[in-house]
Amino acid sequence: MKVVQFTIPVSKEHTIVVQEDILPHYYNHLHRHREVQIEWVVEGTGILIAGNYMQRFESGDVYIIGANQSHIFKSDEVYFHPEEDKKIHSISIFFDPRQLSENLLSLPELTVIRKFVDSLHNGMQIPESDVIKKTITEIVHSKESMRVASFIKLLHQVSTVRNIKPLATNNSEQIISEVEGIRMDQIFQYLVANYKKHISLTEISEIASLTPQAFCRYFKKHTDKTFVSFLNELRVNEACKMIVSGKFDSFSDVSYQTGFDNVTNFNRVFKKTMGQSPREYLKDFRERLI
């Protein structure tokens, strides 16, 4: 069986590494790297897991993934169907925050930006901004010193944005070993592939090669969530996708297709997770479209 790396190396040829991808789907495994990653999802949908954070990502979203923060942009199932002509389009910018702070950002005029870069441990979601996307496009099409200049401009723009949403509530991933990272990937892969059916604690513990009691402690340590709450969150995110797509007959149908045992439990968990009922969520979505 092929061993999947948890820590992915990023090219060291430049201070700022820019990568533009048009692929069938995002890289399909939990991983980390020492570089901060600025990610513009130009086209694509799925679920983002970053540390103990999870939510759906949509086309147009811009995220910052912290250094050594374990993460996966898990594309929706439709991207893995050979008969579907779906593609993801992404632009990724990687940089080593320590190297940047010690060298380029050591200038006194860049103190505010340096402090901002030093605060990126937990990652964040950048609010919708055409200005920021325009600057990312400039970086993609610039070379050498002009790319560096555009990159500094991007950091300035992002550092002055208000109401930035942090991703994880902590970044404990730096203490996770390669073996633990691969084990967490196996757990996430199983949950994402099987969330529609009942998953017992014994079943998922066997995937992790742990006893149920040890698994509960292990999972809580690395996600700050219980197994049940994480699984419910995953199911609610999939339910949100179904609701906004309009491809369902009833909320009972959504409940069944996302792995909940009954609609009452689905409504309770959905409201606890999203702060509103499925019906209210659909109403808000339709009003935003109008």
TrEMBL record:
Keywords assigned: DNA-binding, Transcription, Transcription regulation
Molecular function terms from GO: DNA-binding transcription factor activity; sequence-specific DNA binding
SUPFAM superfamilies: Homeodomain-like (SSF46689), RmlC-like cupins (SSF51182)
Keyword flag Electron transport: no
Taxonomic superkingdom: Bacteria
Presence of the UniProt keyword DNA-binding in the record: yes
Residue span, HTH araC/xylS-type domain: 185-284
Protein name: AraC family transcriptional regulator
Source organism (scientific name): Dyadobacter pollutisoli
